[in-house]
Amino acid sequence: xxxxxxxxxxxxxxxxxxxxxxxLSDETQDFRMLSNISFLxxxxxxxxxKRGEKDFEPNPTLYQADILSASRQAMHNALAYPRVHHPKNxxxxxxxxxxxxxxxxxxxxxxxxxxxxxxxxxxxPSTTAATTTTAVGNVHPDACVYIANPKSNLFKTIGxxxxxxxxxxLPEEALFMxxxxxxxxxxxRSEVGYDEDEEEEDENNIEDSEIPMSLQAAYAAFASRxxxxxxxxxxxxxxxxxxxxxxxxxxxxxxxxxxxxxEDSGLEDGRKQGAGLAGIYSRFMKWLxxxxxNTALGPVAGVGFHRSxxxxxxxxxxxxxxxxxxxxxxxxSPAQAPYRVVFHVYKPSTPFKKSAPPPPDFRIAVVNxxxxxxxxxxxxxxxxxxxxxxxxxTSEKMSRQLYMRLRHGYRNVILAVVDEGVVSYxxxxxxxxxxxxxxxxxxxxNKTQYRPKPKPKPKGR
Amino acid sequence: xxxxxxxxxxxxxxxxxxxxxxxxxxTYLRREHHICGVLTGTLPQIPxxxxxxxxxxxxxxxxxxxxxxxxxxxxxxxxxxxxEGMSALREADRRKYRRELESQGAHAMRLQTxxxxxxxxxxxxxxxxxxxxAAKKAAAAATAVGEAEGEGNAAHxxxxxxxxxxxxxxxxxxxxxxxxxSPGLRFGCQYLAYPGDPLRFHSHFLVVAADWDExxxxxxxxxxxxxxxxxxxxxxxxxxAQPREDESxxxxxxxxxxxxxxxxxxxx
Lengths: 461, 268
Hints:
Chain B: It is an enzyme of class 4 (lyase). The complex is a heterodimer. Chain A has helices at 2-15, 32-35, 62-79, 112-115, 171-179, 215-222, 230-241, 260-263, 265-288, 309-316, 378-386, 396-400, 402-408, 438-447, and strands at 83-85, 92-95, 145-147, 160-161, 167-169, 184-188, 208-212, 245-248, 343-346, 362-368, 412-419, 422-429. Chain A is an alpha+beta fold. In chain A, strands 4-5-3-2-6-7 form a six-stranded mixed sheet. The two termini of chain A are 43 Å apart. Residues 1-20, 40-50, 106-134, 196-204, 257-275 and 455-461 of chain A have low confidence and may be disordered. Mean pLDDT of chain B is 76; it is low at 128-155. Among the domains of chain B are: 92-134, no CATH class; 165-263, Trna Endonuclease, Chain: A, domain 1. The N and C termini of chain B lie far apart (51 Å). The longest helix of chain B is centred in the middle third of the chain and has 36 residues, at 91-126. Chain B has six helices and twelve strands. In chain B, strand 1 (9-14) and strand 2 form a beta hairpin. By secondary structure, chain B is an alpha+beta fold. Chain B has a six-stranded mixed sheet with strand order 3-4-2-1-5-7. In chain B, strands 8-9-10-11-12 form a five-stranded mixed sheet. Strand 1 of chain A pairs antiparallel with strand 6 of chain B.
């Protein structure tokens, strides 16, 4: 056992450089790598082990059987790790099966306003966008766990506070925190068979039954609650584990209205003006050199004097192309499930404020590969892309590099395709090849003589 | 090694997916029945990574179906079972459960403090004694949240076997031949077939199922063959030749009549 562990720990260092590009989560990793770190007894060592070696096929040697059983034992040990909460700094949440509600404190009569409507929030139609004002303040109606003593760094990006200084968690947030051992959720007394004649131990906390909820019970309670499903949760928790901040997008509910219309209304105005100017310019150009209406009678470039190649090329471009900057003429068709943005994702480096979330770095739509086996149609993709705001490649770096512009596109969205717990991410962007006039690029390059040509990235996507 | 779970193993049906929450069941099914599933949970000891994941284990409907057909597992409506189980909980159970968890927690804490003691003693031998003055005493008790509970009264929450895609006969056939199968999305196929436990072996085949009379696009075969060769795996295509006789109306093929073909790009 000790020998094999040592062998395994020495192996990755030899071929670490060869595997540097490999995504470790792509294949099942050897859990023996993990067992070299014993977390229960020593929490200081916490680096992720490197990739191990695998064999080609089973052979009947005892050696191989030993390694395999060691691997399985390591996996067993890793999975059997208990979630331990220190009594001093544990965070306790209480499950509220009926949704957000004001605290029931039998001693106080201050909450008489809220008391008039005991549980109105469960009935609030959740069709509207992210936050609806409920009786408990700015808490999402799908929230179902509250925390009275929110002391954790995680609450910088998770949860919503109510008037009583409690933090409410959405089902995916509660499940994620419970899973990572950062939260201890208690059952409410209404859900467990509670003996009425029992003495009240804690006057302030009569909802809390003090029975911890198991992971299994938490999955049963939260995994299908408020529009959550296992595919969406896989995406949520996978990105959270990698450090991203991830919030629900307005497209979360299937019948919800997209709020993105408001989001890019500012852009809309500017775009109209731009289109207007461009329109005047093109009308002027048309007047200046009328296009030959019938190319069958002569050369496409037209007869006459041609003073530069640009003129000829622009006359040769007779194939119409789609301009993503143009204002869509037809009313946009709403994005249909599952091709709707359900998550907004922020990089760890993006400063995030819960009260005023910045524009997201990524927008994600979640697709179940088992339910939707074919590539989305153009109209599905079009509607999905139109539901995202315009994001033209305007940065300084991109204004120089043609291929980066093409790759970035004018609108973009990420499709998370989930096949039974395995997630693949695809970035879909609306590239505008028509806007990149290569002949003008060349002219530009000729003018500024010694500019090195932009090198296309080898990573083909 | 792990203790074997009581058979049949309950598989939790939650939100359209099949989950296993018991570590003993996970280890047992992996060892004895070649069912690996996909770990989807966060490991509490290292929560900020995606390489090693923890419970629950998510099973494909095919895997759940296979286990039910072999009589090893049953499907439980977990949402209903939890709700009824918890409302039936009485004060005595409540106290007992809390006591158990607290003793588990105390045990974990003892392990932790023992380790700390050992470390401190080692440090004492090496470094000056003044350093240890800063070391703090850990608190006495802790509570741990158990993994599995309330499975005892699950018997009346049983659900029928899962509905499976038409590729099930091929899945069952390859499984019977000793292959370990996992979802194949990462390599653009239906399943990945491993010759042994994926912990130790690379997969050999990219598996795609087809109906017996289905007309295949030759381009798809070429594409699959090239893809498989590119990732050092074989492209395997197969399906059941005869419809199954004993099943009524499900239209599934007979796993016994499955034939398989592997395609390799010869590069000529």
